[in-house]
Fold these 2 entries.
Entry 1:
Amino acid sequence: MNHLVTCSGDGRCARNLNLLLYGPPGSGKTELLTAMENFPGIFFAATNIKEIIDHAALRRFSIKLKFDYLNECGNMIFFRKFFSNWSRDKIEKVIENQIRTLHFLTPVDFKVVHDNFRFIDKANIRHQTLIEALHEEIKSKNEQTVKFGFNA
């Protein structure tokens, strides 16, 4: 199996689709998982909702890496990495505490804020403005949560 291919019950197949396996026993779910297991190359899969993955599918991955939200130290590392040269202001202790106490940040959030300010004169950007933009990134993630299922 050189490419991961998904097929519907009527025989139509497509590549590069997100895939949820469901169906009655004997419908081919295990065969697909076995094909993943025996894939001759390096097979990567990513999800934001590992909790709903069936144990039979999950156990076929020999290495599972969890990329969690940044901790206080990670927040400071990425803030300095992306914004240390942007402001003439020194990062005051009160600003550092605000950065450290932000929850649910990922490295991509810092990149998004960085990219959003790319056309603005960096000398005029204050640390507080960047913190507010990071808050907006956190807020947008919470607003984009999609519920699915029968009780959504």
Entry 2:
Amino acid sequence: MAAAAHPLTCVGCNTTFNLQMAYNQHMRWKCQLRFMCTVCTNEYGTRAGRTHHMSTSHPCNYPCEFGGGCRATLPSAEALRNHTRTVHYYACETCCEYFSTRDGVRRHVNTIHKRVKHFCHVGSCEALFNSTAAHNKHERDEHDYP
């Protein structure tokens, strides 16, 4: 191994190196750590290093409790939140509010963004509602409709 023409100094920790290879390894493993564990504060120079750490040091201890038979377990609370939002929830494309069903998004869009109105047509009643559910409840409660 040939020595570097001038000693190499790490700007992160001021360690000096005579060999280019030693400097490169130091920069890769010690001072330019880019892959952080999402559970603890450990950092790794490679994605494979972090993946190995996560699989051996942190058992999957955040189970998904969403119905429908999902058996996923996640390594952190943040990963569980992301899993739930992306896998099990549906987002309104207008305001990004999350719902557990596509029908929930449809009702939200019609009620909040499209402002669809539902009128009561029983007798001379002129009640106005923002949702079908509110309209149906009104007819059941006020007009004894089934």
